[in-house]
Amino acid sequence: MSSVAQNLSDAPDWTVDPIIQMERDVLPVLHQVPLWCVAQALNIARPEIGPVLQCAEDAFRMRAAQLLSDHGIAVGIEDQTRFRETANLLRETHKRLLDVDSSPDGVELYTFLQGRFVLQVEATLDRFREIFLIRVLKSHIVQAEQAARAVGELNEIGRQFYYVALNASIEAARMGAGGRGFSIIGDEIRKMSKTAQQTAQTLQKLMVEEQDKA
User: Fold this and answer.
1) Are the beta carbons of 163 and 142 closer than 8 angstroms?
2) Name one GO cellular component term (predicted).
3) In three state form, how does the secondary structure of 70-88 look?
């Protein structure tokens, strides 16, 4: 297997979408907080929000880093800090909600939940999505470049076959009747050259079609 083909086979597997995994763990808290606020304001039974907050905190504190690592993505200090601060915010929010009945300022808590809390969680989740989308785009670009090199290698093989066939034909002509074996070999190599070049052209066409679909 050529080095290009080997690199293509080592491409990351994106069948398990890490963005979907993070959204599954984080989005429920963004849906539940407004409901909790409404229930609190109306003095009716509030939805159970503790486990949802804990799940979202774990997502940013542990699973985000693991998903990034699984896909070979190195995150800078700024993003590491962002994930950690958002996880801390979720923990702080959980504590505030547990203490809500003893809190004299419900308006301040409501403002916090609808403002800083929601905005920061949404922004951090958006940043997580952005990191993976950039990684996917880079992966596709690399694979396209590798495919282009593979087509180039195949074209080069076809050209080399052609020159070998040409030399065989020249040698067959020089030897006359005794060069019949060279002539047969030359014909077969010429067929191989044609097949290799046709395959390269087909691959090139398929690559262009895929780029047009993207």
Assistant:
1) no
2) membrane
3) HCCCCCCHHHHHHHHHHHH
